[in-house]
Every structure is written in C-alpha cells, then in structure tokens.
Fold:
Amino acid sequence: MSSIERIAHHDARMIKVVGAARTGKTETLLERCAALVSAGADPSRIFVETATPFAADAFRVRLRAKIGKDAADMTVCTATQMAAFLLGNPAAIRDTGRIPRLVTDAERKFLLEDLKTTGLKVRAMRGMLDRFRDKWCALESESTWLVDSEEAGVHAFLLERLEAYGAMLPEEAARLTVDFLRSDRDRGRELRFDYVLCDDFQNMTCAEQTMCCLLASKQMMVTGNQNQTTRIDNLPPHPRGFEDFDALRHDVDVFTLDTAFANPAAQRFAEAALGEGGLDASIRSARTDDAPAGRAGTPVNPGERMLKGGQSGSSQNGGVRVVSWNNPDEELNGMTKYLRFLANQDPENFSKNTLVVVPNALWARSVGRLLRTRGFSVTTAGTGVSFGGDPRERDRCKALTAYLKLNLLANPADPMAWRCWTGIGNYLANSDAWGSFFAFMNEHGLGLVEALNLASSQDGEVSLRSSALTDAYREGVAFIEANSGRKGFALMRAIGAEGLREFADVFDALAGDESAGELFAIVRTMALFPHFIGPSDKLRIMYAPYLCGLEAENVFVLGAIDGFYPPRDAFEVVSTEGERRSRTERNRRSFFSATSKATGSLTLSTFSKAPLELAEQAKMQVSRVRSEGGERIALVRPSMFLDEASTAYPGFTGGQQLMMEHHLA
Structure:
C-alpha cells in the first residue's frame, strides 16, 4: 500500500496532511473519498472544500474517473459557495436577517458610490472597507473593534444599504454562517456533513476554516502547507490556521508527504523561486519520484513542522526554459507563434494539457486575441469574469448593461439589480438620488422595488432627484415586457451580449433554448465564481493565484518582469519596507504556485524594454528611460524571482534564437 493510500484509509477524527508542492495532497483527498465510498459512506454526506471553482471542477473530473457515478452526489466547492448555500436555509435567513445574494465586483461599484455620499474621501472609504473585510474574515467581534464613531456610522450605513438591496458581500458569508451554526446548535447539526475534507486549508480565511470545522461531525481532514499560501479573490488567507491546526486541537494525527510527483526541473525551479527569497519560514524540499522512497505518509508527533532544506537545482535542467525578448510585441507575437507550432505537433491534446499564465488583464486580452487569430479556441475565464465597466458612462459599461438586463429578465424583483440599473449613465451612479429616495421608501414602509413601482405610477414627482430613478425604472419594465419570452441566442442578442468578449464562453456553451433564469444562473456564477464552461479543449489563459489545485503538462508564464512579478507597488518608495515585503512575498507565492504546476515543460517569458506609455499603463517597474527613434522607451528588468532562482535553470534563451530553432523566424 502506498503512502497516500495509508493516509486515505486512516479513520482518526482529525487528520492534517502536510506536503510541499506536487507531493500528492489533492490525490490524498481523492483517495480518501474513494475509501469512504468503498466502505459504505453516503457520498451526499461528504463535503470537499477547494481553493477555487477551477480546482473544484478539476477535482470532480478526477473523482468521477476514480469512483464513477457516486461522485455526482458528493459536494465539491469553495468555502464561500458553501457559506452562501447554507445561508439560503430558511432558518439561517430568519436568524441572520440577511439574504445570501452575493454582490459581484461590478455591483460593488454602486455600493462604493453610495458610500461617497457619507462625505468620506475615496482613500479613507476603501481603507474602512478593507478593515471591515479583514475583521469579518478574522471572526473578530464587532464590539471589540468597531469603536470609532465615524467608522461605526459607515458600517451601519453599509449594512443598511445591503439589507435594502437584499444583498450580501462575499466576505460576510463565512462569518454569518459561523454565527448561525453556533447560535442554533440543533439546526447546525442538521446541516453538518459526516466528512469534511479541505484542500489548501492555508488559503482559507479564519472564518472559512472555522465554518468547515463546525460542519464536520465524524472526520475533518485538512491538507496544505503554510509556505504555499496564496491570496485568492482578495480575501485574507489564514496560514496560521493550518500551521497550528494540530496545536489548537486534541488528538490530531499529522502526516507528511515528502515525495514529489512532478517534473524534477520544474520542481527545483519553483522551490528556488520560493525558498531563496528570504521567507520567514522555509519550505521543505520534496524528493522527486525518481528518488528513493522515504518517510512519506508516516504519522508524526502533533506539532511537527516541515523541515528546513532545499536544493538549488542543476544548471542544466531539461523542461525549464526562460525566453528573453526585446519588447512586449515581440514577446506576445513570438510566444503565440511558438504555441501554435507546439499545438501543430499534438493537435488533439496540446490545448487541454496547457496553461498560459498572464500577469494582468491587458496581457490576457492581447494574448487571447493573438491566439484566436492563430486558430486557437481560447478561454480567459481563468483571469476572472467581470461583467462590468464604468457604470457612469453608458458607452463604457456594455457588458454590465447586458448583465443587468439579463438579471431583470430572470428576477424582476431583485432590488440590487434595480439599484444598479437605475445608476447607469450618471456621474455619481445616482447615489445622491437614492439617498433622498430612501426617505420615500421609509415613509411608505415599502421595499425598494415596491417603492419604485409606486413612485413611477404617481402623477407628480416624489422629488426632483427621483425622476432619474423612476425614468430608469419605467425603461427597465418596458424592456422586461418586450423580451420576457426570449430564450437562448435570441435572448443574448436582446440584452446586447453578442460580440462582447465577457460573454464569449457563455455563447460557446449555449444549447439555444435556455430561459432567462437558466442563462442568468450561468452568467452570475461566472461573475462570482469564475470557472471553465463550454468545450473542454480550449487553451486556458489564467492568473497565477487561480492555479491552486490544478496541474498541466505544459505551463507558460508570460510577462515575467519586475512590476508584474512582483507588482510595481512592491517597489514604491512611498510604501513602508513592511508593505513592500508583504506585497513581494504574497506575489512570490503566486509565482511559485504557477511554476510548480508543470508536470512536463515550464517556459517563462520576459522582455527588456517597452514604450513608456505602455509601461506606465501596465504598471511595469521602470529602471530608466531613454529615447529611441524619437520615442521614449522604458527599460525594464526580468522578474527578481528569476534572478533568485537562477541556479535552477540553464540561463536565458533569446526569442529570435527560439524562433530560428523551430524555423519560425
């Protein structure tokens, strides 16, 4: 029996599995699921938590291959998805007084505009919201930190608006779930699972970790490594929750995995990029699968940690290549041409076995456009899907307008949708008008939609400002009446989604007979929990943090320069040393996550200069500026992480050399 199989058949109440990257932590959870079902456990009583929806989808695919149809009955999702589901229970709604209708990033912009009416400056307002998020996620009681009168006023204003809009911020969900589970023990027991298995436990917030613990009735198994902590979706991870998991609980059996199943060269590179950057705690270097087996899977005493160590790697590593280009145009054109060449060698499998990692939205759009012109079917869902834009200008929020039209068709009684719809095209998103309209709502004791309906039917104006709201409401009602029967492609055309890149994946997945409700469920899930939909043979373009729980035979990391890896604010002189270091180490872990996912080849791409305007727009870290041919050119440096991992790859390959090697020049 293998090490992983021994852990999978372990029946202790609490199990902690620690391992470096690619040592089989996720495989251990898969094997545990298989062992439980084989032993007669009810699949519907098993909950598997993953760091991202992408990881959840990948886990389901592997689980289905391992145990068959029983996999469909098992719950596999992120902690936030689970929290939203539990809060939809009628008892939870009564207990919390809240509706778990999570706010998307685009809808959040309207809340920010509303908060401006409190008189707060934007910087102070954002700082307060970050503080609220961090305190909620840390499960700190509001009575201990909400003491400043101005802060308390903003907090009350925010919650008042959220309740009126029938909405909830994603960062609230786990905290409210914990409060509910603790306040109603009997109801909490009904909602619990027999087995709760958590992957990448260190990436969860404290509230999410606590929620998962409360949900487990028979066994809790957590896997992870605090030194691989990755911040996902702007929620603050709680690595100490994993590090101290066994120290804070009784009778926890701890296992370590120390054999890596990956490309040894890519593994050494990833560990060099992570381990040589001055982290407070070092990562243990796992042996690759061609090394002698060691103590993998052997229980250790509670409190035992990953041991300090690591290999610098060989200077002649096959499977890792760093390509240097002159400028971004050469990089993007050259790398997409190279990808086309490789795909032609294996047309059936290359795309589904490949991940292209990009640093920002600009690179995602540019790479996606070039790959499509070269004949690839591409998805950028791995960079997040924002049906947004600037709501204050109609021409700059076409995706948001289409999203809201679909929302209104699917649910004409959604207060948040009407709040957003009535704010489009106004420089303040009509937040000032809503401020006065709330008095009308309270006077009549009505909800938001009922108040809009009453106000729009009255002959006189409720107030001078409210006319913008009632006019928009009438426009929305007319649109609903004209298009309520449309389905599928006709529905997408009616809302104006045709040709918008944000809806490209949705178009590819359409059967053609979807109702507004069915289609909105797809679109809304994409906005809140990005994941891959449609054909599975698309080439996947992703941000580094979203690679948690994934793997690919080929990984390409583009734009590996300072300013992207790490981001420019890691170099800003206006920041404190602590802030710069925190930002650098956070990004280092994301970079490590991306490079450690290659089971076959790892290719990184960098460039040395860019037009100054582009460099500023993309927030590259500029080392100096010079003039070339009358144009101002910014000189940039390869990522500092490449320099720190320089002993783990054979050096730079020139972009033109790469092109000539494969007769692509």
Notes: Confidence is low (pLDDT under 50) at residues 276-317.
